[in-house]
Amino acid sequence: MADQTPFTKGHGTENDFVLVPDLEGARPITAEQAARLADRRAGIGGDGVIRVVPTSFASEPEVLEQASAARWFMDYRNADGSIAEMCGNGTRVFAAYLRREGLETADEFAIATRAGVKVVRFERPDLIAVDLGTWRLAQPQIADAEGFDALVHLDGHEPLSALTLDLGNPHTVVALPEAVDLDALDLFHGPVVNPEPEHGTNIEFVRPMGAGHIRMRVHERGVGETRSCGTGAAAAALATRFWAGDRGDSWTVDVPGGRLQVRMLPDHHVELAGPALLVADGTTSLV
What we know:
This protein has helices at about 30-40, 60-65, 90-100, 230-245, and strands at about 5-10, 15-20, 50-55, 70-80, 110, 120-125, 125-135, 135, 150-155, 160-165, 170-175, 190-195, 200-210, 215-220, 225, 250-255, 260-265, 270-275, 275-285. By secondary structure, it is mostly beta strands. It has two domains: about 5-135 and about 275-280, Diaminopimelate Epimerase, Chain A, domain 1 (Roll), CATH 3.10.310.10; about 135-270, Diaminopimelate Epimerase, Chain A, domain 1, CATH 3.10.310.10. The strands form two sheets. Strands 5, 6, 7, 8, 9, 10, 11, 12, 13, 14, 15, 16, 17 and 18 form a 14-stranded mixed sheet that branches. The relative contact order is 0.18.
């Protein structure tokens, strides 16, 4: 029998992940292995794979530099095996795993990601908040008078106006016209963004529900449509707030997998809060 590797399955508002502990830094995961783990028919299944490894064992210099601030590195890959900077829902699931395993015991601690150090805070057992760090408009120099800088092409619809944001990973937020039904959108096939982002983008489709309240669906790069996206929820709230004239610092974001809270912080930081659940443990072969 091939060597068996432990894993944990978890999710944040049904954005699900396979976590693989590598506490000695001796079990790097390849793109092919991550894709097999995330496969919903031939593997365990998930929107992404998270390797739990001490930051001091990171191979990337920009991550290794975070070792003095954060003991643990969230080595994240998308479901297709591609490397991603971070994942908002994934940070909460990662933090919940660290706490369960006794690797972190405080109510607040930092974790390392490819998008920099993120601080997580346990407000309640069922509610974890994470400071996602700074955000910015990705290309304000080309935004039009209504606050759009991109077009998203989706089968069966006229081009949809959108705004691109950088939250450590790329997002394109679509303001849906009233005539377009959010629930009826076909997101099986990836939308096309113009101008095309160099490293791809997550695409959020947003419907305002009232003051400080939006609904959202998302097509994630390297994955497809997911039930939730944490940084996407933050990007959607930030874009909607921008279009509304920067009104409101607290937002409720409903996604197919549940509900998230987004809060704008000083110095262009943004916070995401929501649940994280660990639902299964087991072993598997990485061969």
